[in-house]
Amino acid sequence: MDLLPDSAPLATKLRNTLIQYHSIQDSEWRLAKRTKDATVWRKPSEEFSGYLYKAQGVVEDVTNRIVDHIRPGPYRLDWDSLMTTMDIMETFEENCCVMRYTTAGQLWNIIAPREFVDFSYTTTYKDGLLTCGISLDYGEVRPNFVRGFNHPCGWFCVPLKGCPSHSLLTGYIQTELRGMLPQSAVDTAMASTLANFYSDLKKALKT
Fold this sequence. Notes:
START-like_dom_sf, lipid-binding, StAR-like, START_lipid-bd_dom, 12 strands, 10-stranded mixed beta sheet, alpha+beta
């Protein structure tokens, strides 16, 4: 188990990594899934042997309210069907924390429940916000869970040009689920999970 890292340099590095992902040319992405709520693309990750996923869709709400539903806090558990528990383990400052959370089994439990411990950071980006995270090897792994690992992930949320009551939400996700899993099952689950994330989020914001 590692000690907690110094939050400031980790936050800066994480933000810079996400901005780098955000500048990847469209031609490098391959379409993975398209629904009425979101489009999901993927490309080979430079962090591990799986994929970096990009998801994008327009959400009918203001940036701050959307990000409040995504980042660690009371809203997330209420609407995210994949997340089963969430605890804030450490808080560095208002926009920076370490959280432990668990996820439900997926694909008829081919993918068993997972546990993650993530460093989370929310900051301004252009006219909107970026909330991002990366997993840490921290804390004891709870029984009955496989500890997964999120390589740099994040969500950019900016007002839609010409329509500030709507926001463009773009996510970058690269999750190493670990455990004995066929990669094809993981890839199927990831694209569907990201598309469902948008539809669940939109429903939650309307309530």
